[in-house]
Structure formats: C-alpha cells, structure tokens
Amino acid sequence: MKKLLAIPFIALVLAATPRSAHAQIGGTVVYDPANFKNATLRYAQLIAQLRQLRATYAQVLNHYNLAVQMSHSIPNMASRYGLSSTPWRYANARDVYGNATPWLNGANSGGVSAVLNGYQKATSTLQSYSQTLLSSMPQSEVQRLEADAATVELVDGAAQNALEAIGAIRANAVSTTSTIRNIQNDSLSNNPTLNTEVGVLNKVNATNVLSLQNAQDTNKLLVALLEQQTILSKQLRDASTNITNADINRRQNTVALGQQLTGNLGQTLNGYRLP
C-alpha cells in the first residue's frame, strides 16, 4: 500500500516544483512577477493536497490496522471454552405385569397412539353408573358423582398431554444435542471461512432459533404442569363443596331425621311388656 501511494507522491512533488519565472530576450533574462506568483500559489496548493493525501493515507492505514487487529480470534478456543453436554436419560422402570413398558414407550417417543395405549394399560379403568342407578339417586348425589367422574377424566387428559410433550422432547433430544454441538464447534473454530461477518451472523441466528425452540418446549411443559395444577384445584374445590353441602343437608334434616328415628320410641317403650 505504501508503494502505491509513493507514485502519486513523486508526481505531485515534480509537478509542485516551480518552473522558472524568467524570460530571455536577446540573451537578457527578464523577471516576470506574475508568473512567479502563480507558480508559488500552485506550489502551495500542491503542498496542501500532499498533506491531505498523507492524512488520508494515515486514516486508511489506521483503519486497516484496526481491521487486522479485530480479525484476530482467541487462540485455543476449544480447550478454553469447550463444554461437555449431559446425556439425556430415557424413562425406564421394572415391568412385572407388562403394563409399564407401554407407558414408557409413550413417555420416550411422544407418539399419540403410544401415549394413549400406555396410559390405558397402566391406569385403572373408570366405570360408569347405569341410568337405573342414577335415576334412583337424589339429584344432588348424581351431580356430585358426575363432577367426580369429570375430575378423573380431566386428570387423564392432562396426564396424556404431559406424556406426549415429554416424549416429544426426549425423542428430539439427540437431534437437539447434535445441533448444539455443531454450533459450539463452529463458534470455537479458528477457520476463517466460519468467522466471516456473515458466518458469525449465521451462527448467532442459529443460536437464537435454537433458544426459541427450547423456550417453546419449556412453555409446553409449564402449560402441562399448570393444567394439572388447575385440575387439582378443581378436585380440592369439589371436595370442599361436597363437605359443605353435606353439612348443610345434615343441619336442615337433623330434626326430621331425629323424629323419624325416635318418634315412636317412647310409645314403643311404654307398650313393651316382659314376656
């Protein structure tokens, strides 16, 4: 770069050298003040241009040196910042009666059919009351039984959704871990092709997308937990409601029940005779 700038510099110096401001008439040298003044002004202009050129050259050189300095990467990045990931563990358990393995298959794969089949085989089946039994019960009792059955069904649905989310995350764990490892290797590499401005931006974007995906998986698990917590709140609410309703019913019907039980007791005792 210095050699390239030296050529115009020499040209400027040669051009800036004032020419003779004398005229020769009949062997006599005549001094021309106007030509000398113009030559002096031109020389001053060339000197100013030369100084501006030198200042521009200094700025370009500083920018170039800064770019070279900023292009240097930290040595031994892999050994200084490399991390080892913790391997994923898949669900496992003993299967004495053969009903745990279908559950584990759903919890490790996230397949809808696998989750449904495993959950049904590992849980007790909820039976339903016949219409004959329901018609013989008071309406308040029927409402309580239906609310309890709805709680069990909601628990089943929430548990199956949670198993599906857990299984999907586990099924994608190997691919996600491989992607994270690739981003780490590319980020710690000193290969110039991986450290261009566009390359760095690509790695940043890939990391952001991966973070968004992991955040989405976390949100799925949080929603599943919140759903189960909501159903648990409903179950506690139904239990408290049933206790309150039973207490109200007892207080309202205590007198009638007492009379029904003891109304004829005195007459019966008075009429009783030993054999």
Describe the structure.
There is one protein chain. This protein is an all-alpha fold and 275 residues long. It has two domains: 2-66; 101-247, no CATH class. It contains ten helices and two strands; from the N terminus they run αββααααααααα. A two-stranded antiparallel sheet has the order 1-2. The longest helix is centred in the last third of the chain and has 66 residues, at 197-262. Mean pLDDT is 84; it is low at 1-24.
State the end-to-end distance: 136 Å
Determine the strand fraction and express it as a percent band. under 5%
The number of distinct helices, counting runs of at least 4 residues, comes to 10
Question: Whole-number average pLDDT?
Answer: 84
What integer value in Å does the Rg equal?
46 Å
Q: Determine the oligomeric state from the structure.
A: single chain
Low-confidence stretches: 1-24
Count of extended strands: 2
Following the backbone from N to C, one meets helices and strands in this order, namely HEEHHHHHHHHH
- Give the % helix: over 70%
Structural class: mainly alpha
Give the domain tally: 2
- Overall geometry: elongated
Identify the strand order in the major beta sheet: 1-2
Largest sheet: 2 strands, antiparallel
Question: Descriptors for this entry?
Answer:
275 residues; mainly alpha; 2 domains; two-stranded antiparallel sheet; elongated
Secondary-structure blueprint:
Blueprint: H1 2-16, E1 22-25, E2 28-31, H2 33-70, H3 77-81, H4 101-109, H5 112-122, H6 131-135, H7 139-171, H8 173-188, H9 197-262, H10 265-270
Antiparallel strand pairs: 1-2
